[in-house]
Amino acid sequence: MSKILITGSAGFLGSHLTKELLGRGHEVVGVDNLATGRLSNLQDVMEHPNFRFIAYDVSDKSVIDLDGVQAVDEIYHLASPASPKLYQAASLETIYVNTIGTQNMLELAKTYNAKVLYASTSEAYGDPEVHPQPEEYRGNVNTWGPRACYDEAKRLGEVFCYEYHRLFQLRTKVVRLFNTYSAGLRNDDGRVISNFVTQALTGEDITVYGDGSQTRSFCYVDDTIRALILMMEMDEATGQIINIGNPTEHSVLDVALLVKQLTNTPSKITFHPLPEDDPKVRRPVIHRATDILGWYPEVSLEDGLKRTIQSYQAKLALI
Asked: N or C: lower Cβ tally within 10 Å for the chain?
């Protein structure tokens, strides 16, 4: 049994990962300041004998002295707002958690010789001029715009991981995540699938930004969690950046039409101006994931959407 620290444990990915690792028999310490995470995501495990939750901001340097985080074996640093709506509303906090917070986790790992997996993002590629995006691509990013607080902070977090690996031989691993989804996303999250499904089920207009021709690659949460654990386990992933996402690409309009079909909603699809710096294309090259981790996504978009819709329907029935 390993002692594992998960930052952002009350968030979407963090709560799924917490439950999976507890189910595998590990001791899990969750740290979250609850700025965007919700304790309700962890209600099923709050009384679990191997789980401890600490409400704290990992951007505060004193986090490394907290009772409970000593002698950890692994650190999954997932803490950060992830949707444009949420990170733009907390821009400075987003910068801090991905830079100062990342360094704090690396210092903690250095103290206890722990492994660290840092959750970066496909946003590191910006609005890409290379398609699809391999890990070697350095991106087309804007440091002076509304998405920069997230994109650039994540990129600097990667640099921290690189330097701690280079200078101290710390076992750091960086994953660039591409559009993970499931019903666990907040229905006010503002991202494509949570927006479309919520709007369809409530009969509201389904809002498509731009003409809907921009593309995304959507990865169901079960596939992403499996990849994160594989990456932490494998020594070959140390010192690596690895894309994790579904290499099957869909236009945003096609996703809207599929949601409309699967929900049998009377909602109309409406079109709105494309936000500034919104990427036109996004699809991962996943050769490293397949070669190093032996990982490939298993859940199709249609199957994942069906699961997501069923869960959202159950939630809405309780409101």
From this structure: C
